[in-house]
Amino acid sequence: MIRKILFLSFLVACLHVRAGNRDLISRGDSCMTQYDLHGALTLYMQAFRAKDTYAVRKRLAECYYRRAEYRRMLAIIRPIPDDSLSHELMRQLFYAEKRLSEPQAQIYWGRQILRRHPMDAEIIADLAQAYTMNDQPQNAMMLTLKYMHVDSTNIMVERQFADACFLLKSYVLARDSYLHLLALGDSTFNCFYSLGMCCEQLKKPEEARAAFSKAIALTDSTKAGPLYHQGSVYVTLGRGAEAIRCLQKALQILQPDSSVLFIVHRNLGDGYLLQNDRAQAIHAWTDAVSYNPYSLTTWFYLGASCHMQSNRQQAARCLTRFIDLASAAKDPNADLKEMIRKAKVMLQSGQKRSR
Fold it and tell me: How far apart are CA 112 and CA 114, in angstroms?
């Protein structure tokens, strides 16, 4: 009798937990339909703590994916066998691995998906791209070609086929594919640019010129690559003036940003100073003022460091430059006044030593 009572109590408790879990999952599902990911995650976690099931893990995985918590998603899904995963969940795993820059894992999930759904064109295109980016363009070519035997009008897939052909130096196939993409309506920069490079390799300069012209127009002449290639094509065509114009524009774009280089060298000098390496700091700050000759503080620190290194001539030049610039400042604050005072003291000290 006691055993029966204990068994019934246990059964009631289990039913109560199961009912409670179903309620938590149902409420979590409701939150998901309302795009309340935080609420759904809270409810699913409560259900998971009460009872670990594949159903709850799958829901948690989707939650984590939609919140971009990819590593947590992978951890929660790991115990579930692959054949128990839905198509959508496998796709999420595929893209989670892509965003985590795990190409081999991404390729694995892409293959798993295509075993069940061989016509998933989006996965085919993105898997082909993963192959190409990981030095396997031959796999990308075969994968996309297989799909194109059935459907030759999918722009995403044909792009990857064309790119794979180009990387494999199959320029005739690549050119034909890019032309087909244009016929399908893919009039993008990459399509024209890649077509131009194919034609350049195939010694078809006039076709290359036309393609590069389109690519340049689409970027409003802000990319150096097509301008450089267009210049090379104009050289081949014997059109020197146009070649010079394109190549000079490419050079202007390739010129480094002096403001960025100043900041990098200035901070590099600060870093060396923190390491007590004044010699390297002086080199970095010297480069910095070559990009921005009006930086008061850089001239001051450069002069002070040269003074500390007993490099009197360079210290005098830098400190004098600092004082000249600082003297032109309107309403100098207390910090700048103190720096001017210190610079003058260092100058006088250097002059005394040199006598």
Answer: 6
Neighbours of 288 (CB within 10 A): 25
C-alpha closest to that of 210 among 190, 228, 230: 230
Assigned token pair, 77? 């899904």
* DSSP codes of every residue in 154-179: -HHHHHHHHHHHHHTT-HHHHHHHHH
Three-state secondary structure string covering 63-84: HHHHCCCHHHHHHHHCCCCHHH
- Give CA 20 to chain center in angstroms: 44
The candidate with the shortest Cα–Cα distance to 149, out of 137, 161, 139, is: 161
Buried residues in 176-202 as b, exposed as e (16+ CB within 10 A)? ebbbbbbeeebebbebbbbbbbbbbee
Residue 56 has pLDDT above 50, yes or no: yes
Can you give the pLDDT at residue 22?
Answer: 87
CA dihedral 336, 341, 346, 349 (to 10 degrees): 170
CA distance 219 to 303: 45
Identify the DSSP state of 255: S
Alpha carbon dihedral 190, 191, 193, 199, in 10-degree steps, equals 150
pTM (global) more than 0.70? yes
Question: How is residue 207 written in tokens?
Answer: 């076709």
d(CA 84, CA 80): 7
Q: How many residues does the chain have?
A: 355
Where residue 295 falls (left for φ over 0; alpha for ψ -120 to 50; beta otherwise) is beta
Instruction: Determine contact, residues 119/90, Cβ cutoff 8 Å.
Output: no
Instruction: Band the pLDDT of 105: cuts 50, 70, 90.
Output: very high
